[in-house]
Fold this sequence. Notes:
alpha/beta, Rossmann fold, 2 domains, two-stranded antiparallel ribbon, 9 helices
Amino acid sequence: MDGTLIDSTAGVVGAWNVFKETYPHIDVQNILSSSHGVRTVDNLRKFCEIEDPVKLENEAVRFETAIVDTSKEEGRKGIVLLPGVAKLLAELSPARHLPKPRWAICTSATRAYATSALQIAGIPIPDVFVTAEDVTKGKPFPEPYLLGAEKCGVDPKACIVFEDAPSGIRSGHAAGCMTVGLLTTHSREQLESAEPDYIVQNMNSVAVQLIDQGVQVTICTED
């Protein structure tokens, strides 16, 4: 979701700066370079060294609330759609009237934050919506995409995963899905380390068409 459909970087930076006031030992720049695509609870456990499950859950809520609250502070641009997403959603919109879901969002964010962020960006909540609370092990483990495929009623091998972070690409691969890396938050070298099947700049390089068997996806690579 973040980095594939929407850009919430402004709020994420703001949230980590807020948390540095409580956890002064954290290195925000180091965190920003390695935390994307990972569940908030896992990042807070790792970087803020929070082990108590109740505190961890409460701090995760506080962190994701701070993403929204700080996203427009100090001249920041807020939570916005990434290039090509509006076109892609328009192409997928007829699928909402079909009996079987044709696409899903599998995010490391909590349901509360993900719902809020999507609404701010103007993205409808899909019929299949897998969030941090729905899985025991988040990305890079395969559980998020295995669950998404199950809820769509399809074999993971028939799914295409779009990801901007190495952890998400590894999650998709581990689930048996084809993976497409987007150069929206990481360098080509970072994405290549996770070995996606394709790499494109953003969703402008992707077109979809609904067909009887599912969704036909066209990917325009630079190669």
